[in-house]
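Chapter review: from sequence to fold.
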Amino acid sequence: MKHLLDLLAAIALLVWGTHLVRTGVLRVFGANLRILLARGMRNRFTAALSGIGVTALVQSSTATSLMTSSFVGQGLIALPAALAVMRGADIGTALMSVLFSTDLSWLSPLFIFVGVVLSITRPATTAGRFGRVLIGLGLMLLALRLVVEATGPLFESVAMRAVLASISSDVLLEVTIGAAFAVVAYSSLAVVLLVAAMASSAVVPLDVALGLVLGANLGSGLLAVLTTAKSEIAVRQVTVGNLIFKLLGVAVAIPFIGLYLARVRPYVADTTLLVVLYHLAFNVVVSVGFIGLTGWVATTVKRLMPVPKQPASTSRPQHLDPSALSTPSLAISNAAREALHQADIVETMLIGMLNVIRHNDLRLADELRKLDDTVDRLYSDIKYYLTKISREALGEEESKRWTDIISFTINMEQVGDIIERVIID
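The token string follows.
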């Protein structure tokens, strides 16, 4: 039992370290990452490169997927370009897994010490937020060493070896387990590193490890779909299209697991490196080989999930995507767009008020009073949405935007009330 608890604690530490790095990078570079993504949309190849860069920093293809989906939902980029970004995002995650697979455990104490000092001494500054990133990196490196130490004694038992033997007889079961791990851990990177560490300790056979890696890749696509399940259709099209690419890639890769081991294993003695290189090779081949299919997949997804043609009701929020709350910079941008939507309605009320005063149009006056109710509802919705964003997760610039949006929506709500009183009088 002790060895099992040690392994579970090490896995939890690995997942938490990944979370700290992702949230820390988003706090420091959140707005700049969105700008980098937006500027890389000239064609599918530059879009893929921007996806590589952003995901290498964030260490989460899911976070990149949410940012890209938001752009599509706002009509800023086309679906094929968004799918090209996701092809690059997968390569970015794989590159980071190769980096972390090297023995960098000696850096763990240094990263944790420096990170804690920066976080405590300068908590509200960029340096303090960067300290959070260093703490996350240190915990990830420490956790990988603890995983290797904990797996040896645990998997020496006869019962555990019997379980592993049953898994190794079915590659589809391996893929399913890997996908489930990625969804539960909220990080395919953490799962790939965990599997590589277990393979290096001879806990799982190499062919099983590669099957689990394929499952982790599939799980990252499924995780993005689940995260955006309640979002508008335009947003879900990106994650579903990305999942289609994952399914195609896994289906193509499964028959070639044996070929990879036969051709590459003689040249790579390090088992950990062999696993993460397979992860990298899979994503590079799928991304480069399938990038020409982005248009076809986009067309297929649009047929499967058509966007309703009827215009959205102005009385309901149009941009407050709940799935974006996990990415604070993205949620702030959504709230800003909704505040502009509120301002558009107030502008309509102002123009209508002049017509009511000039022509004594009672029917128009009644419609304007209803619009004031809409402005009040949007104010409440925006305020509630903003309160669900962790202020601690925001950088200095984003905290200022948070305050500005709240003040702006309050002013718009007050302007709406003034217009209503003028109409009544």
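Two observations follow directly from the output. The mean pLDDT is 80. Residues 2-304 form one domain.
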